[in-house]
Every structure is written in C-alpha cells, then in structure tokens.
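Tutorial handout. Part one gives the primary structure; part two gives the three-dimensional structure as tokens.
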Amino acid sequence: MSVDWIGYGYAALVTSGGVIGYAKAGSVPSLAAGLLFGGLAGLGTYQQSQDPKNVWLSLIASGTLTCVMGMRFYNSRKFMPAGLIAGASLLMVGKLGLQLMEKPLQP
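Part two.
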C-alpha cells in the first residue's frame, strides 16, 4: 500500500480554500463546502490508499468540484479561487480516470 500524497494535497487545498474564503470574506457557504469536499476528498484518498481500485469517492468529489467551480470560473473569469480549484479538480479527475483504466476491476 502506498500513500497517495497528491490526493492528500488536493484535499488540503480544497479544505484550506474554504477556510480562507471564510476568513477573508466571512463566507459560511465557502467554509461548509471546503470542509465537506475536502473531507470527502481526504476520505476518498484514504480509501484509495487502502485499496487502489476504490477511487469512486475521490472521483465523485473532484468531478463535482470540477463542474461547479468550472462554471463559476467561466462566469466570473477570475482565477482565484474558482479557476484554481477547477483546474486542480480537473487534474484529479484525469489522474483518477487513468488509474481506473490502468488497473482492471476484478470482482
């Protein structure tokens, strides 16, 4: 079992983004979303570290953030924070998709 440092870094980025959004603008939805999706990404990464085939929770969390933050970036054209999180989430979706393709799922 190897530790997925990239996944844990992504979870920390999402969580810290929510905390920073709350600290700078007092945005409770940013804090809630950052803690929720950062926690889901961290839990998904932990599950993946235990079983490399179990990428679904991480894939759902990063895929949802890719869509939501991608739309926010498209509408606002502001890189921070929407563009950064959308880009990082898209990279995570790609990484997880490659992992699914490289290891065949066995029942």
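Part three, for discussion. The chain has a mean pLDDT of 91. Residues 79-102 form the longest helix (24 residues).
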